[in-house]
């Protein structure tokens, strides 16, 4: 097998796998002999001819069924093989669009091996966030599940020529799979470590005066985003499919990549402090550069007003001004990026706080009508208070209705989910709640109202008797 087709979801970093294999001797596929088409050109033509869906938009595995090109279209694939017949060593390509054409390549060439790569579905969510795509997490995970479902199905049908590997595991230990691919070098022709993708702020933060390396690392890393992504994946079928991939893989991921909630929160706290500190330093740098630029402008204006003399020549500060202007523009861009990161961090903190522990079970019970009606009775001490008790209860009921209307849009979880739910049970043992319960039990009928005074008296005596024990 001297041809390798690397296939993976756009979020799987399959291009890093191709870059690593090239360092071990794999050559890039050259265009076809007759038509001069690359692999990607052939795939695009076949997709268009068969009206196939964009693999990045599929929401179900059935939408990514294998295409069955006619012999005329298969000649394009054969023409590509002829165009590369002069290549003496291993050659190949990497593409996410090869997925619906795997059966075709498997049929037309018995010397092609298929390296199928995958990563955790949380990675797809993070990539969507990085690209600022305005799509729902469900659509992202549906697409991930559809793609990897089709990928796993092909692997299970053709395990003799296929290798299912986790991207990061393969990049760290490629020899475990490379020994099964004859024709590749035992050792890389150059450093086989794939460089990490540079983030937009990396270079600027490292050049910012006073910005420590630790602060830059906290700003760039995103364990909180990873934690939130994993929580979203837990409620989707993509997680069970990922477990199937792990169980079937030639080289599964051996690292438990789950993020601890407390570690993510601590990192977020330090990240926010680093953002504030970096913004302060950036503001100071902007003020300093603005002052320098203003000074240069004043000096330039003064030099323009001073006539040239044989001993003093006018100094041209145009180049300096241009450099300062460029620096100011770069600093403004960095400030906007940092403010955007800080805003996103605050939004993430809101998500965490909304899903965190709830408190206030005691106040929830005291806002209930049962407790409020009982409190009216408890606070009635004189004969006048008891005579006017029905009116007082009516006023309290009207006030309760008004409060319910004011909190109409409020959405609170069940009291059982509160961290202090035990306090709710304690409040229910108060005399106010018990008397209110008696009122609620007897207020439904005229006979109940007649029995209410005696029922309240009995409940109060029972309460005092329990307190004396």
TrEMBL record:
InterPro entries: P-loop_NTPase. Residues 290-305 have a biased composition (Basic and acidic residues). Residues 290-310 are annotated as: Disordered. This is Uncharacterized protein. It comes from Vreelandella aquamarina.
């Amino acid at each position: 097998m001297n041809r390798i087709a690397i296939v993976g979801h756009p979020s799987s970093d399959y291009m890093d796998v191709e870059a690593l294999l090239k360092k071990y001797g794999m050559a890039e596929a050259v265009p076809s002999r007759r038509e001069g088409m690359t692999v990607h050109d052939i795939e695009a033509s076949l997709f268009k001819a068969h009206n196939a869906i964009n693999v990045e938009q599929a929401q179900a595995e059935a939408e990514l069924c294998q295409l069955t090109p006619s012999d005329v279209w298969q000649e394009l694939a054969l023409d590509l093989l002829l165009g590369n017949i002069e290549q003496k060593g291993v050659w190949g390509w990497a593409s996410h669009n090869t997925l619906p054409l795997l059966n075709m390549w498997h049929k037309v060439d018995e010397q092609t091996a298929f390296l199928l790569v995958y990563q955790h579905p949380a990675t797809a969510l993070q990539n969507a966030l990085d690209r600022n795509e305005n799509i729902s997490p469900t659509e992202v995970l549906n697409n991930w599940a559809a793609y990897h479902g089709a990928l796993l199905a092909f692997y299970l049908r053709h395990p003799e020529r296929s290798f299912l590997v986790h991207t990061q595991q393969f990049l760290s230990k490629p020899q475990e799979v490379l020994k099964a691919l004859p024709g590749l070098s035992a050792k890389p022709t150059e450093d086989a470590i794939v460089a990490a993708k540079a983030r937009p702020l990396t270079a600027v933060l490292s050049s910012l005066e006073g910005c420590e390396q630790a602060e830059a690392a906290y700003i760039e890393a995103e364990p909180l985003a990873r934690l939130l992504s994993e929580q979203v994946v837990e409620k989707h079928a993509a997680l069970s499919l990922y477990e199937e991939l792990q169980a079937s893989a030639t080289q599964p991921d051996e690292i438990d990549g789950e993020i601890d909630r407390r570690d993510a929160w601590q990192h977020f706290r330090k990240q926010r402090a680093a953002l504030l500190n970096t913004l302060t330093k950036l503001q100071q740098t902007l003020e300093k550069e603005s002052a320098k630029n203003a000074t240069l402008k004043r000096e330039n204006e003064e030099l323009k007003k001073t006539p040239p003399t044989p001993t003093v020549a006018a100094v041209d500060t145009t180049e300096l001004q241009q450099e300062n202007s460029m620096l100011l523009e770069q600093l403004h861009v960095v400030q906007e990026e940092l403010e955007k990161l800080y805003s996103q961090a605050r939004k993430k903190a809101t998500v965490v706080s909304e899903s965190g522990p709830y408190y206030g079970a005691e106040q929830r019970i005291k806002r209930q009508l049962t407790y409020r009606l009982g409190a009216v009775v408890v606070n009635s001490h004189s004969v006048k208070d008891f005579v006017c008790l029905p009116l007082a209860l009516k006023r309290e009921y009207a006030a309760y209705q008004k409060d319910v209307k004011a909190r109409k849009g409020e959405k609170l979880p069940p009291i059982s989910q509160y961290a202090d739910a035990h306090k709710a049970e304690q409040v229910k043992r108060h005399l106010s709640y018990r008397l209110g319960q008696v009122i609620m039990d007897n207020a439904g009928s005229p006979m109940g109202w007649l029995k209410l005074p005696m029922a309240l008296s009995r409940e109060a005596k029972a309460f005092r008797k329990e307190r004396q024990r």
